[in-house]
Amino acid sequence: MAEKKFEEAMERLEEIVQSLESSDLSLEDSLEIFEEGVKLISFCSKKLEEAEQKVTLLVKESDGKYTQQPFEMESKDET
What we know:
Elements (H helix, E strand, L loop, with lengths): L5 H17 L4 H28 L1 E5 L5 E5 L9
Antiparallel strand pairs: 1-2
């Protein structure tokens, strides 16, 4: 797959969903664009993971200074 931008991949995914929902496609065409969609989802997931690793939070300390800390997502399983 040629290097795509995240936004372009998301646009194409939206087009694929609309095409699949319209059900105007043959089975073969539906399977073909479904496979394309799976590849795009994988691409987008990878890009989001890369972005997540780069995100940092600025935390204000008690002395008023800001420090950077890595962003950590809370697990939905934790209660």
